[in-house]
Structure prediction request, 228 residues.
Amino acid sequence: MQVDKSLMTGSTVMLVLSLLSQREMYGYEMIAELARRSEDTFQLREGTLYPILHTLEADKCVTAREKAAGNGRTRRYYRITRRGRKLLEEKQAEWKFFTDKVEQVVFGTSPSPA
Amino acid sequence: MQVDKSLMTGSTVMLVLSLLSQREMYGYEMIAELARRSEDTFQLREGTLYPILHTLEADKCVTAREKAAGNGRTRRYYRITRRGRKLLEEKQAEWKFFTDKVEQVVFGTSPSPA
DNA sequence: TGACATACCTGTATCAGCTAGGTATAATAA
DNA sequence: TTATTATACCTAGCTGATACAGGTATGTCA
Prediction:
């Protein structure tokens, strides 16, 4: 199923931080991993991801280090910081709150218990 | 709780159609009703809603009729069409699909059963 | 030699939603 | 009386998140 890209707006940073909360990763890898885990629903563009990573780094939510890959290329690995984990927790809480409210309005449901 | 407005992107039309799927409503009322049902989480702006309503009308997803209100003002009531209901169903399916995928990635959960 | 995958980067375009302005009437407050 | 607030509609232009489309560079495979 194809989903309207505009739905992604606002949750991309959370998705990226989620990946990094599990292990160190480099940009190109994140795009592939996100596609894999979502069964190709999230096909993040490089033009979207790299600027986000740079902003997260500037905000000290992630740190980066260059590392030579076996194939002669240099990868830039990103690692989440304590501050980044805090941001992720906030984004997750915000997301749950938001989706509960949407479902409340659209499906007439009550918020699901935590 | 305040949520990042950019999360709303892509779901606004679904929210509006959801309201209209239950009863005929006028613009100003929809804004209040959306705020009420979401406990003030969704504070839609007139500059957002009216253009959406005009587009939905042009696309024959809603019809409109003027009606004098008791207070001397004229209200523009919107009613959802068959085509509008179809669009709503699509948006709802898309939304559930999308949120399932996000939770799959972020919380490591499996899609919830329908 | 040329295409493709890997791996990074960025300037500009796009588009949803917001800002900030407009019109107009009626009720309430100063 | 005048100002403010609430109701009720509208729209031109701005903002900001994401996409597009281009760039750089190396290695592999046909």
Residues 5-107 of chain A form a domain with the Arc Repressor Mutant, subunit A fold (CATH 1.10.10.10).
